[in-house]
Amino acid sequence: MSVTRPHLALEVDGAGAHPAAGHAGPAGDIAALTARVTTAEAAGFALVTIADAALPPPGGPARVEAGVRASFLSRRTQRIGLAPTLHVTVTEPFHLATQLASLDHASLGRAGWVVGADHSAAVYATVGLPRLDGAALRQELADGIDVARQLWDSWEDDAIIRDRVTSRFLDADRVHHVNFTGERFSVVGPLITPRPPQGQLVVLGADTLGVTGRLDVALVAAPTVDEVADRARQARTDGAPLVFADLDVLLGADRLAALDAVAPWGPAQRLRHTGSAEDLRDLLERLAGLVDGVRLHPAELHVDLPRLATGLGRRPVTGPTLRDTLGLHRPANRFATAG
Amino acid sequence: MSPRLHLGVFFTGVGPQLVWTDPAFSTHTHIDTFVATAQTLERGLFDAFFLGEGLRVRENRGRVHDLDVAGRPDAITQLAALAAVTERIGLVATQNTTYNFPADLARRLASLDAVSGGRAGWNIVTTDNAWTGENFRRGGWLPHERRYERAGAFVETAKALWGGTAVDRHDDLISVTAPPTVPARPVLFQAGDSAGGRDLAARHADVVFSANTDYDKAVAYAADLRRRLAGYGRSADSLRILPGAAVVLGDTPAQAAEKAAWIQREQVTGPRALAFLEQYWGKDLSGYDPDGPLPDIEPAEGELDPSRGTIAIEHRTGKAERIAGWRALAAERKLSIRDLVVEVTPQHSTFVGTPGQIADEWTRYVRDRAVDGFNILPQLLPGTIEDIVDKLVPELQDRGVYRTAYEGTTLRDHLDLPA
């Protein structure tokens, strides 16, 4: 329904997008994160994304891994989508697919995955893998997404039959080896985890990764509305079903000077709104004609999120799964045999 | 204070010991089943809820094995969800040191410890199994004799990162340059049965989860382990011994025995008995009657197919001799296929009796320091767990060998491990 457009997402990692926001409090402060996400849920956000990296942000404390945060949040929330960043580059593809499938089970179908592509020399050194860049990196990301999607389908929905007559717990014809062979790794499968409730998790990723056609949601970070419009058009051409624009937001322009005096924000890398909630609503309305959703990056989460919660007005969230909320259908299983 | 018993549940989530034909069997992969189980155990003041791991779905002759319960979540992900709906119980994840990156796994375990407020544990397992390796980047890369070396280096790396020390280590077993994780100190569990495993446990583990449940074996095992501990300069109290055990309770001894017999019949069904032999014969035996004599055809050449899971090193060779031994045993005792499989399947020790009987037995074990407690392997879900919490726990409390309330908040507190 058009009234829910644009869908709203919220980035909740750290303390906020403005450099003066500092770092999130004590590293293990899951209580503060839980409070933010329940606020976002009550305000009608469709999903939160949880940024992450194997290395802490420069000068910041070590982080709790985003998949663990999302899973904890799955039992403290009821409707909101939960999309952690997991990096294809420095993980085992099989573990990554299992972890995400498990998050979808724990949240009863509210999981998403923000495709991470960390490829600095320092991040590769944490796992001792050879560094990839350029075309090799794009291939690795494509392989990582492809194998995850195949593994999520490796159990058909009705694979567990519990048939007392034949003593069979499973129908072995409905649990499949994927026999995936990528450029740098291969995976036989099947997954150890039955098919996720959504069938396929919602896969989100930047339109700059070179894998737009494999995403469910392309994330576009561009500093002007015109550029967002161009890139969104391109992402749709490349096959992304949905496009979200990234947007920095600071409500109350009078706060900007004080924050900038501590640490200047620097030029915008994505759309940026500093001003009133009313002007933000106008901007969202304008963006609704260009993109399907907007991901907000509050300047200071503890200040801007409560203002967003009251200033945007409550928005209907359909659910119960994240796919339902975003209007994405539940895909058929690629391995299912007809009849 | 007299010694107290510590209890955990080893929730494998898969395998032949789980009786899925039980009409009350819970949907084993649904999050609600896990939540209900963990909350019941917390009501029973258990030390830990313990998830197993298997990184490849079991097969029989190249096809997914269809007779056992299969399908389970990623352990750390699931336990992070359970951390949100429990307050005290320890949350232990089985995780493999062969098919994980040390800094990545250390970070995920530290994260579980952080969100649970110090309730995380890690059951350290290794594999050299190339069949499992087919799901991972490096494949079957680690020779059998080096897997505990890798595990030792892996654990040292994890402990350093949890303790605030960066690691820069590059050799043929480990390659990692990484900064510390969030501060964490997960409790380390180890099966600790083989010599390599006992040694790893004596160096690093806080808890061993061995199969030595028989009283005399348990006493000998405890003595051996405490000797090894001393060799590493550790006190006897720095390691808890919690062997795996199955428990079948009944209101009367006869009722318990009847239930145990029913469980065993359900665990070794005719098709399962045939599938067990097929793994050894390497041939289709579906034409044989499980209640009839052993197959008269000769087994395939070659040793065991590893696809039913990790095979202990002593079972990787000598297949022909083993089958000859079974034939002799079956002939001598006139055993059917199913009888033979019941006879030769490795069973975890089972305590069968009334709550009072088992409480008396366990009180003796713990007072003699033969064990510090048990890690219970459920066979009925939720039956085993509800029985123990509602019937056995009160009997143990009456004997003064089990807590009546949680005193601390962390898993380390519950286990009375040195700070």
Please give the structural blueprint.
The complex is a heterodimer of chains A (339) and B (419).
Chain A: E1 7-11, H1 30-42, E2 47-50, H2 66-74, E3 81-87, H3 93-106, E4 112-116, H4 121-125, H5 134-152, E5 160-163, E6 168-170, E7 180-181, E8 186-187, E9 202-206, E10 217-220, H6 225-237, E11 242-251, H7 256-262, E12 271-275, H8 277-288, E13 293-298, H9 301-311, H10 322-326
Parallel strand pairs in A: 1-2, 1-13, 2-3, 3-4, 4-9, 9-10, 10-11, 11-12, 11-13
Antiparallel strand pairs in A: 5-6, 7-8
Helix pairs in contact in A: 1-9, 2-3, 3-5
Chain B: E1 6-11, H1 31-43, E2 48-51, E3 59-60, E4 63-64, H2 75-83, E5 90-96, H3 102-115, E6 120-125, H4 130-133, H5 147-162, E7 167-170, E8 175-178, E9 187-190, H6 195-204, E10 207-208, H7 215-231, E11 240-241, E12 244-249, H8 253-267, H9 270-281, H10 319-333, H11 337-344, E13 350-353, H12 355-367, E14 373-376, H13 383-398, H14 411-414
Family (chain B): Belongs to the NtaA/SnaA/DszA monooxygenase family.
Protein name (chain B): Oxygenase
Organism (chain B): Actinoplanes palleronii
